[in-house]
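Predict the 3D structure for this chain.
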Amino acid sequence: MRAAVLHEIGKDELEVLDDVEAVGFGPGKVRLRIRATGLCHSDVSAMNGVLPQPAPFVPGHEGAGEVIDVGDGVTGLSAGDRVLVCWLPACGACPSCKRGQTQLCLAGFMNAGTPNFRRAGGDVFGFAGTGTFTEEVVVGAGCAVPIPDDVPFEIAALIGCGVTTGLGAAINTARVEAGSSVAVIGCGGVGISTVQGARVQGAAQIVAVDPVASRREAALRFGATEAVSPEEFADAGRRITAGEGFDYVFEVVGKSATARTAYENTRRGGTLCIVGAGAMDDNFQVNMFELFFDEKRILPSMYGGGDVLRSYERAIALWRAGRIDLESMITHRVRLDDINDALDQMRTGTSLRTCVEI
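Done. Predicted structure below.
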């Protein structure tokens, strides 16, 4: 079986191998044939060590495909079913799940320490307990979510992570109000999805902030009312909000410096929503006086901040109704052999989402 493998954390390139075996099939598990997978920046963050991940590993967690086989005890899934990969499935039994905060369930994270693959040289892990840069993968049944026949695999793959994360940040976590002012810092696939979520919610002004001109241009096509470089952001805020600051600012980069910029451009009593996944040693700081005096809400958003199965259904409904544009988010398509070209496109900002067809 073919898969793209990172041999060592900190390396920039993956090696596409044909001697990888998907392991772990048994009770409660399903074997999937991956048909399409998106590149999410979290994959790069795991490769460079920003996000913890044992190596060697197969990156990828934003995928869709078909069920090949189901293990004993699996219900609701059969061979041939079309599914998307949920990298953070809810167990339904932990305290977070019982409180209705299924996006905080840790059961999926526990799977990250169990190898999903094997080669002659030893075990190979799958990123976030999945690993979709591969032809086949074995995952828990909760990771395989059936999709309707009218949803293409590449669209389903995006819904599996980036779209759900960005839409949910605006709709579930921040609950953007109609007529409000919004700024989104970082306009890759998740940021563009956040822009679309703010538009769906009825925001009056949506300012997209990104250093890459092509991404700023794309943000305007997806609903931003204005797009500026980071250097222009403060001036835009003074002009649009009369210096008060935005009602909602979304940080979709995952760095303390941009989080601080977001905080400073949020109005008093406004909402800063942290969407980007950052490093454990990168500390965001506010002083105790401003925290008290400004009364700004700081809201982290994990995987869209809501029940992911409901969020998938909502994304599909909005896509069917033409309220969000998912096809145009796929700016590049490659085969698995060209996976390193796709990674370069992400690192340089030339792509919003690259679809790897497998």
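Residues 189-201 form the longest helix (13 residues).
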